[in-house]
Amino acid sequence: MHSALRRTATLRPLSRWLALVAWLAISPLFAADPKPEKVEAREPRAQIRAEILKGTKIGSSPEDVLTFISKNFKPRKDAPAPKLSNHPAVGPTAKGSDKKGVRSILLILGRYVGSPALLIQEIPIIATTTTAVQWAFDTEGRLIEVFVDKDTEIGNQKGPDG
Asked: Mind giving me the DSSP string for 68-121?
């Protein structure tokens, strides 16, 4: 009788812990659409672009985009502050597009380690991915396209002594 009570008492904290883990795993499936400030660098490019377009519609002005950025994203210490540049959008996704525009705004959305599994290999490899968003504007100052690029670098970029 006592061993059955002990087993039940031992299983209660475990079942509570398992319920919490299950809730944390399942609750995002039922969550509402993420807000633009919840866009994360790890998300797929198409998903990031769709979320960005919710807050900066095609036809928006550069001022609207800069206001959107300042309200929804914290500036990164290691990246320049977003500003309107007097050149078209650049990068792999803009390269093949006829909607590069004549002016653009660049936002470094974030950096992350692409695959933690690479760190536990016999010879660990650090692969850091940088996600950038660019807004392209036409000659009249209207938003014509949003580009999302991901650039992955292998190594810690500090050299052999770093």
From this structure: HHHHH-PPPTTSPPP-EESS---SHHHHT-S---SEEEEEEEEEEES-GGGGGS
State the Cα–Cα distance between residues 9 and 109, nearest whole angstrom.
47
Verify that 38 and 26 share a domain, yes or no. Answer: no
Cα–Cα dist 73/81, whole Å: 11
Please state the pTM of the whole predicted model. 0.68
**Side chain identity at 116, as an amino acid letter?**
P
Residue 77 · residue 101 · CB < 8 Å: no
Q: What is the spatial distance between Cα 154 and Cα 162, in angstroms, rounded to a whole number?
A: 14
Residues 4 and 48 in one domain: no
Q: Are residues 27 and 46 in the same domain?
A: no
pLDDT tens by residue, 64-120: 999 999 999 887 777 778 999 999 999 999 998 999 999 999 999 988 887 666 667
> At 55, which amino acid appears?
G
Whether residues 102 and 137 share a domain: the answer is yes
Backbone torsion region of residue 101, taken as left when φ is above 0, otherwise alpha when ψ lies between -120 and 50, otherwise beta: left
4 and 67 housed in the same domain: no
Per-residue pLDDT of 28-44, as tens digits, reads: 333 333 344 478 898 99
Pairwise CA distance, residues 2 & 113, whole Å: 50
